[in-house]
Amino acid sequence: MGFLWFGRKKTPARISPAAESVVETPADEAPAIETHAVVVEDPHAPHSEPEPELPPTPAEALDLLKAGNAAFLSGDTRLGHVTAQDLDALQGGQHPIATIVGCADSRTPPTILFNQGLGRLFIIRVAGNTVDRRGLASIVYAVKHLHCPLVVVMGHTGCGAVAAAEAVVDGRVELDPSLEEMIVPILPAVLSARKIGGSDQARRAVEENARRVVARLLTADTALAEAVRTGQIMVVAAVKDMATGRVDFLDEAPPASEPEAQAAADDGHADSHEHAHAHA
Questions:
Q1: Which of 11, 226, 243, 247 has its CA 20 to 30 A from that of 232?
Q2: Which residues of the chain have pLDDT under 70?
Q3: How far apart are CA 79 and CA 111, in angstroms?
Q4: Angle, CA 38 vertex, CA 37 and CA 44 arms, to 5°
């Protein structure tokens, strides 16, 4: 608690020129004396901490990523100002605005693509941006314990893992057993892209792969499905263009219902295992 010290000057005496006697100045005629309050801080008083920022809503988090990608495309980035001192504010914990499930490709770093500094993104990366049990557990941790409001499954054009799956589906190569864990989960997306058709089958397969991973996340864990249902989180698919760096978000509307998503996932897995055994 501070203490107030007030200074006050004595009322000056006035000499009467006629009587040459000392006459006290009446109080109502005394000149105004300006006083100043001096606040002394108590060094032992507790300092109030700034209130933490409220976490963004899922829609706000998505807008932040879109704005960050736009800044990256325009060259108006802030990552050049990130220093080790930025870690000081993160010693008490992390509060990421989004979880990114991305490809391990060295040309697709989410932090740079979305112009986000330290502590902003919770990132899980594996070739082909698929999710196994450990990846799923990481996503659930981010949602339940870090209160992350947004999950983005981001593929990219020119993905080598998707290209390898395409080669297996088209019969151009045999399935390499050492790459089975990477390729087999992507086979349903390639098969789906072939059924849909279109001129750019490679991009279509990348898009379908991201969409199918989103669908599986909504059925693989009840906590994620409930968080989406209540609006606590949003799970979206995205594709980064390798040539431009632009990230396009797919199907931002609410995803298919759980039975539809489960049916799509089951169909894809049945087809993928059939192809895997055929090329084994």
A1: 247
A2: 1-53, 252-280
A3: 9
A4: 135
CA atoms within a 13 Å half-sphere pointing along the CA-CB vector of 12: 6
In contact, 173 and 187? CB cutoff 8 Å: no
Closest among 222, 117, 212, 231 to 155, alpha carbons compared: 212
Asked if 10 and 51 touch (Cβ cutoff 8 Å), the reply is no
Q: Tokens 């979206």 appear where?
A: 236
Contacts with 223 (C-beta within 8 Å, 6 or more apart), sequence order: 140, 143, 144
Contact at 8 Å (CB) between 212 and 119?
A: no
Handedness of CA 214, 79, 134, 229 (dihedral sign): negative
Give the whole-angstrom CA distance, residue 189 versus residue 120: 30
pLDDT for the residue numbered 3: 39
By DSSP bridging, strand 121-125 and strand 98-102 are: parallel
Secondary structure (3-state) at 154: strand
pLDDT of residue 113: 97
Rounded to a whole number of angstroms, the CA Rg of the chain reads: 32
Instruction: Give Dmax (Cα) for the chain.
Output: 127
Strand order from edge to edge, sheet including 150-156: 121-125, 98-102, 150-156, 234-240, 247-250
